[in-house]
Design brief:
The complex is a heterodimer of chains A (644) and B (314). Chain A is of the alpha/beta class. In chain A, helix 8 (255-263) packs across helix 9 (267-289). Chain B is an alpha/beta fold and 314 residues long. Classes of the chains: A alpha/beta (644), B alpha/beta (314). The A-B interface holds A 470-472, 474, 476, 478, 618, 621-622, 624-625, 629, 631 and B 160-161, 164, 184-187, 189-191, 193-194, 197, 238.
Amino acid sequence: MEHSVTFTLDEKPLTVSVPTNTLLADAAHIAGIDIGQPCGGQGRCGRCAVQVTGGTVRRRSTLRLSPADIEQGYALACQTVVEGDVSIYVPPQEKIERRLTTDRVVAEVTVPDGYDYLQSQTVQRIHLELTPPSMDDQTDDWSRLQTALRLQHRFLQVACSLNLLQRLGTVLRAGDWKVTAVIDVSNVIRNDETNQVVRLIDLQPGHLDEFAPLWGAAIDIGTTTVSLWLVDLVTGKVRAQVAEYNGQIARGEDVISRIIYAGKNGGGSDLRQRVLDTINGLLDTACKRVKAKPGEVVKATIAGNSTMMHLLLGISAESIRLSPFITAVNHPPIMSAREVGLNTHPEASVDCLPGVASYVGADITAGVLSSGVDSAEDTTLFLDVGTNGETVLGNRDWLVTCACSAGPAFEGAGVVNGMRATTGAIEEVWINSETFEPTYRVIGGGRPKGICGSGLIALLSEAFLTGILDKAGNVKLTAGSPRVREGAHGGEYVVAWGAETESGEDIVLSRVDVDNLLRAKAAIYAGFTVLAETVGIELQNVSKVLVGGSFGKYINVEKAVQIGLLPDLSWDHFDFLGNTSVKGAYYALLDWRGRERIGEIAKRMTYIELSADNTFYEAFTSALFLPHTDLGKFPSVEMALKKD
Amino acid sequence: MPIEIPKDKWTGNIRAITIGATSADGGTRTKAVTVGGGTTMPYLQFEAPTPNKPVIAIEIKSRKPEDWSPLLAEVWGEAMADPARWAKKAEEAGADLLVLALTVEDSVEDAVKAVKSVLEATGLPLIVWGPGQAEKDNELLVPVSEATKGERLVLGICEDKNYRTIVATAMANGHLVQARAPMDVNLSKQLNILISDMGMPKERILMDPTTGALGYGIEYGYSVMERLRLAALQGDAMTQFPMIVTPGFEAWKTKEAKVGEGVPEAWGDWNARAINWETITATALVESGADIIVLRHPESVKRIKEAIEELIAA
């Protein structure tokens, strides 16, 4: 029986006549409409979704569609057959881009509920009006200022740097005894009974707008990536988010090689300068975006692993590397930017967040704060897919944590054509299982420059599922496509030919890259499985898996399961949180209560040492396979492989 | 009071695998060898008898090896220059089957000729090893495999970076493969999975866990073999393959076996020491569950056969 199928793309409908059971994709082809089918029409990618606006169709597979999608009439053109006269709306490609039920996108950062600058912020801008001196009142400038602080703001004790003291007289007179001060009021706002000293950060002549932006910076120093958020402390809003590779990478990819380098003559100061250059560079970029100057930034909160913190502060990290593996300091006191070396306001308060141990630093305590594991009712697994794969398992009653060296592959480093998730990065890839031709999406939409973490996860999974890679990651050179070829370091797969790319060079996934990715995913998977085993929790009983990492704006959890990075749980278990460390630093920057909570978290976490026995190594080698040596642990992947 | 010995109940067992095809099965071997089939940890006769006892393979080469110990050269003599003669002598020495190791100097013609001459000289089942360089292995083993179609040879050695070509040709020509992983339960399993994924029937895979000689990692190898066997008995299909070990190759590489001069006097007689080294290595491997033991010295063959008989009788 013939049916009419009417397609609507822009305005004018196209109608064709096809027999019963014709695929919508085939009908569209007859109508001359090009519906992209990146996976080769296998129903894997869900990129050919169209909307049935009238008539009867039968969906063979709805795996890629959410119940809401189906409610709205969405159907996959490659998996849906015509059973009567139908009308089909073909949405523009970019509209369906984010429709995959397996995609997890980082939520936009919003100011925490109930943020009240006056109640929460430890750095505040205040107006002061001093009594001018006279022959009758010969009080010195400094005492006069202290008096004003005491009488007008009840700040009984104040500390001040020599630098400010040197400028004090000039400022007071220039403002005709009206001045605007920026003060660190941590002790008072926290109601510390033993210490009520406030610290003067800045003094400007005249009464400036008290509620004009007051700049603060939340910083995460990752081993591979440094992220900085510029925040208006008055409104609490994040005004600029920037990130860059850590300049220390040139001196070693992992923390151990950095510590060794730091121990060499001049190595420590070299590393310190490199990370300061990276941070100060980011500060410049972020400030330019909001037309501010780095010198106007009056507070910085820093998260980072213990080694990064030591290297930033120029403290020897040697004891982190050597038995019994202790840090010099888990919780540095609040310092001034001048001491630390940041190009913010020299007197800006720099708060380095507290860590737990040598290999569980402030990045993870901050991550726990921002992910909320410490207040979760049900047992939650929090994974940081970073250079040091840190894992936290627990809930509001208990928290255990471990760390393992995963390497920087998922941040795009240590991979030939890897890059950070910025403009020009391939962030999604599908490979046609018949032709091995890829379809990819580039951040910003232009020519590709490289592949970022989420792109690498997708690429590895697609190459595996389409048979380009075997389970050990060997490239199957007999695949019969020019894209699968012998490269300089063994087999490789060409994702983009030189003619398509920014540089004119081919973008490839090499055998070495595959090995690095396999090791990274195996370390992370082994880390959380061993942790769960140690406390006797079955991963199936974890209610939520929160994934953090600075490898992109989103993750396709199905792909991440297929390569064996994430456990094979139903997709609704997963949330992607992006860079949880910088987000935690942001919460601590805004609100002293959040900052206190990080301290509590640090005290509550129990650290599990993975190198104590052979268990981790065993788990690691068995995870060093696609998706895992024990395929029974990945039933969904087993099914996907059978189907192919 | 009688003591009741507790018995383990296992859900899995080792696959029984047959090497070599007689004329009834489309080959030319006068006998086939079946190994594996175990249902308990090795030699626990009170739980279940050992269905197929371990077998001894003697390693010979396609051309006279220059780097072998003079002690071996002495015992095999002139036969070493001709693989067919060497094969015969090995059969006389008690080998259940043979390993013929090809060398890098072999051309394709040399390799095929050597294999064929050995098959003609004896009726024993045959294992053929490439020279151990991925490209050369593939170059030689494919024509050998084709020229011996249906003989149920074992082709090796497959490793995770180079297994595809060998497995493909073995599949196409009715042979078996030897799958070697570096002393790790997971890596062994992974290679077996890769080979099975290509469609190789599970009845045609032998597992080589990699041998460490006495004093050179034997404890580690022993423990890995024990754990592979435990995994197999617990029902893990990808470890249920008979194991082939190479104590001859490994023991004769050690300084203790190789060097006769300039060593401490306390080391004693060179010949006795060298053979002891091979035998002690091999005995430990037999006890940890090896099914095919590849040896080099005829005296070791005699001793290991005796040891196996004792274990079975015990």
